[in-house]
Design goal:
The protein is of the alpha/beta class. It contains 15 helices and 16 strands. A hairpin with a 2-residue loop joins strand 15 and strand 16. Helix 13 runs parallel beside helix 15. The protein is globular, with a radius of gyration of 22 Å.
């Protein structure tokens, strides 16, 4: 590795970072992470902190998961790559598809289509949804519905169903035929309704209204995260996703669950759909499927949808879609090891327990710091703290404020993520109670520094 002076001098000279302005990386050099073990990461200066971000929602098993590392190394020796396009496949991807079938059986999902990551998985589900309707002789079903504040990746299709202008405005015009309804977000919504159950009913009514306006026969699919993640960790009322599912079924609309973040235990349930008792038509996964050690993803497909494709004899079900790295044998080997370790450790149970501790601690911080307008979580290790300049008006905090909190928190021992006015927490699911206290103590120092 080059020495620290080289790394610091050249960090942003030849490199553009995702999700930020190139000029920002030049003015505010990012932390250069050079090591990780357990739930901790270490920067180029040797400063070690608890990773309250979990990489990017994806290092569920932490940075020292040896079974996954061993699986990757062994597969590189056996078969580092081969395509699974028509005519060839590999042993690892066949085995993985069977294991995922077992894992997702309670969600009614029985087939897997492999991708390179979350945005790919979303793009795949959107395309297959349209194809499904064409096979069934309903070619007019081409539109997509989604939630404002929802996040579905950065491909053009995913950006088009995204509900956050930050990922849309500079890239418009996007895909036509994408429409959004209000998110069930009690803290900020156009109905001025703070009761979660009443708000869920209003949002469901808005969905019904939008379907009637567009015409149900023109809508292919509704896509949603079971708990909105990047939009600020927004858990809906327990009635919301089941209500969406019922409306979709009644109108012949497919339901796509974007579980790139929520699958594999983060919510305290094995999947976000299972948390709410819903069986979607497609589920998009990635991130934790390989514990972030290899870029990989999968779209899981419901039995009823699979039957439509598999029983077709017209040729319309031929899938003209895929990626060079779909079903990559090294990624499949990593996913097999990750899935086994994920289930062995029952990390969903730990996520629920540690998540409850972290959520309670964040609520206590709110009592002591006026800058905290809202604390969200309560379902596993997904939490957000929204910062405001004034609680009564909910006026957002100054743009510099979250960054100041993050910097001090990092200095005091924990990495947290800034997203707009929110401090986001999504730590590894192997977090201990002691680790939770490290995060809370560091955040206390961060807020006290303002």
């Amino acid at each position: 590795m080059k020495d620290e002076n080289f790394l610091k001098a050249n960090n942003a000279r030849s490199l553009w970072h995702p999700m930020t302005a190139p000029s920002d990386s030049l003015k505010n050099p990012p932390a250069i992470i050079t090591g990780g073990h357990g739930v901790r990461i270490r920067d180029v200066d040797g400063h070690e902190v608890v990773d309250g971000v979990g990489g990017l929602w994806n290092v569920n098993l932490g940075y020292s998961c040896q079974p996954v590392k061993d699986a990757i190394a062994a597969q590189l020796d056996r078969l580092p790559y081969y395509s699974i396009f028509r005519g060839t496949t590999n042993d690892q991807v066949i085995e993985l598809a069977e294991e995922l079938r077992k894992f997702f059986e309670p969600d009614g999902l029985t087939r897997a289509f492999f991708t390179s990551g979350g945005s790919d998985s979303v793009e795949t589900a959107l395309r297959l949804a349209r194809q499904y309707h064409k096979i069934r002789n309903e070619p007019g079903r081409v539109k997509y519905l989604s939630l404002k504040k929802g996040y579905h990746g950065t491909h053009t299709g995913g950006a088009s169903v995204n509900g956050n202008a930050n990922f849309r405005t500079q890239y418009e015009p996007l895909l036509p035929g994408c429409y959004h309804i209000p998110a069930p977000f009690p803290y900020r919504n156009p109905f001025n309704e703070s009761d979660p159950a009443k708000l869920a009913a209003l949002c469901l009514q808005a969905l019904e209204d939008e379907i009637a306006f567009q015409g149900a026969s023109t809508v292919a699919a509704f896509i949603m995260e079971p708990i909105l993640g990047a939009g600020g960790v927004i858990p809906p009322h327990s009635s919301f996703m089941p209500g969406v599912a019922e409306i979709c079924r009644r109108n012949g609309i497919l339901l796509i669950a974007d579980e790139v973040i929520t699958a594999f235990g983060r919510t305290g349930a094995w999947t976000g759909s299972r948390l709410w008792g819903v069986k979607p038509d497609f589920t998009c996964t990635a991130k934790a499927i390989t514990n972030a050690y290899f870029p990989f993803g999968a779209v899981m497909i419901a039995e009823a949808v699979a039957e439509v494709f598999e029983s077709d004899e017209t040729g319309m079900a031929a899938i003209g879609h895929g990626y060079t790295y779909s079903g990559h044998p090294v990624g499949a080997a990593a996913a097999l090891a990750t899935l086994a370790e994920t289930q062995r450790l029952k990390i969903n149970e730990n996520a629920a327990a540690r998540g409850a501790e972290l959520f309670a601690g964040l609520q206590a911080l709110k009592e002591r710091h006026e800058v905290i307008g809202d604390v969200r979580g309560g379902h596993g290790l997904m939490n957000a703290v929204e910062l405001v300049a004034d609680r009564a008006s909910k006026k957002p905090a100054d743009k510099a404020t979250p960054g100041k909190v993050q910097a001090k928190t990092y200095q005091e021992g924990a990495m947290v993520r800034v997203s707009g006015n929110n401090i986001i927490l999504s730590p590894p699911l192997i977090l201990t109670s002691a680790d939770v206290q490290v995060i809370l103590k560091a955040l206390e120092a961060g807020f006290a520094s303002l």
